[in-house]
Amino acid sequence: MPTLRTALAGRTESVDHALTALAPRWTTWLLQTLRQQESMRAAEIVAATPWNSHPYTVQLLTRMQERGLVDRLKFGTYEITTAGRAAEPVHRALAAW
Q1: Where is the HTH hxlR-type domain (predicted)?
Q2: Would you tell me how many other CB atoms lie within 10 Å of the CB of residue 84?
Q3: For the domain that residue 67 is a member of, what is the CATH number?
């Protein structure tokens, strides 16, 4: 039977994993932007987030791809993955908090 300490450690690891996957700051915004479209080219994502530079946005997209949150398709088109869509409850919980 798991102890309270073991159960809390498991939850803490889950929370830490979710927060790490959604870092840095604009990752959540990019996920929400991509969620609204079937797919978007990098230039379209940059246009939707004008406060970020093109190189920084591409860097974020690369990190998101490495974490399995987005896929990079042909011709620089990005699409949200199942894992990226699964972040929605995390976004809602953080927004409610």
Answers
A1: 13-97
A2: 24
A3: 1.10.10.10
